[in-house]
Amino acid sequence: MNVESEEHTALRAAVSALGQRHGRGHDREELWADAAKLGYLGVNLPEAYGGGGGGMAELSLVLEELGAAGCPLLMMVVSPAICGTVIARFGTDEQKRRWLPGLADGSVTMAFGITEPDAGSNSHRITTTARRADDGGWILTGRKVFISGVDIAEATLIVGRTEDARTGSLKPCLFIVPRDTPGFTRSQIDMELHAHEKQFELVLDDVALPADALVGDEDAGLLQLFAGLNPERIMTAAFAIGMGRYALAQAVDYARTRQVWKAPIGAHQAIAHPLAQAHIELELARLMMQKAAALYDAGDDIAAGEAANMAKYAAAEACVEAVDQAVHTLGGNGLTREYGLAALVTAARVARIAPVSREMILNYVSHQSLGLPKSY
After folding, report:
1. CA angle at residue 260 from 256 to 264, to 5 degrees?
2. Which ranges of 129-220 would DSSP assign to H, the alpha helix?
3. Which one of 62, 75, 313, 331 is most buried, counting C-beta atoms within 10 A?
């Protein structure tokens, strides 16, 4: 029995074919353009703005299949999933008209800035602040770190905090900051991890923004923030599952054909069983990802939050194990450029620490799901 609909099965096959045509040595710009032309990048965005009218179920499927073909697009996690979703759900009509068509057809990308040097992703410790300007606009001041793709994005969705006039406390709000806005500067972080998308530290030095740079309602910032973070976790799971599937496929193919003595090495349980276990764990993680996407698309943000965190955790662990077993299966060949697995040893671990560490997910589950006392 196929748990997916016929539409999803057909979409998976079509995206897989696109990924196979491009493969591991893909040109990122060409793949992005082809995926956009076929409507895959905006499959989750409203049809009224050029999107496919689907949801996270479809978008995560696209990213998973591209990853399984060895050519994942990291900016899919950020641009259509986080930024596109937040603007589609909470943006003004003008913001939707301005940004969604470009996000849907891939001609526009948007980065997402939440992480700070001293706060990580803890929204309660974010120090980037926004204050009202005399002209009714906003002035943003602060710093962000490990922000992907700012150099290629037309704008960045920045998480800041505004002061509540009634209580004096700070509350999170989201602002669209165009790339060339005065006072908005970036510096590239020197990363050991080699990826198409670069990482940046951002400085916002009294960045002046118009009043309509604020996304949605100032008093609903936390709801809007988590409406973006749940898709981020679902898409990170898709990214990890695709990567794990790619590594596992390389290992299985090698184990079938590599013969040292009389039989292929895959005939030996010491090789076969760890690969079988890796396959099982990836499939289980995929089911949780699909559950999270279905809950999110149904509008159940609370249940989706729990499932999205679990999916991200399970997928990251499954991915790391699949990559490790793949390298072990290939032996010395697992570290050669020919097979493309060595780079995944580092890349796989990104899913464990971003956008939130596995330990914080365990904190979330122990506190929110199990009702245990909070430790932080």
Report:
1. 20
2. none
3. 62
